Amino acid sequence: MNTVSVPQVISPEHLLKHWQGHRALTRHVIEAFPEKDFFEFSIGGMRPFSKLVSELLAIGVPALKGIVNRDEQPYSEAAVENLATKAAYLQKWDEATSEINQYFKQIPIEDFEKTFNLFGQYEFPIIENIFYFIDNEIHHRGQGYVYLRALGITPPFFWTRA
């Protein structure tokens, strides 16, 4: 019997590097905000950037931990509710970056196509959940770019990934 092998387009290592590149850029966007505006500035009823970053922090590590442990905990921003300074957010961001590396590497390649019920709400293959984490971050970072432009601040170039 002949079997046809389908070439892999992206390795898990490359996917993680891609995601961490986005995280590095989002960190630069956080850094660009003046302290007060990070917590208070918004446009058209959108949440301040600190709230958007809280959402990103509440997704990345908890979701990957859930995937690795097959634990469908509900979504919660409780772990980031008490962050009161931009420096505290940046520290939490850096801690999360390290934890993402740790948990991501525990996902066996054969599991990426397995279905996982993320936060008990979104039942998709693990690879699609990871794409959601990245897409959601890009979406919210775009809001941050709009805020920075409205504040008269030039945001980092979108290709800045280190």
From TrEMBL:
What Gene3D superfamilies is this protein classified in?
dinb family like domain (1.20.120.450)
Residues that, per the record, bind a divalent metal cation: H140
Q: Which residues form a coiled coil?
A: none
Keyword check for Metal-binding: yes
GO MF term list: metal ion binding
Q: Which UniProt keywords apply?
A: Metal-binding
Q: Which family does it belong to?
A: Belongs to the DinB family.
Protein's UniProt name: Damage-inducible protein DinB
Taxonomic source organism: Flavobacterium profundi
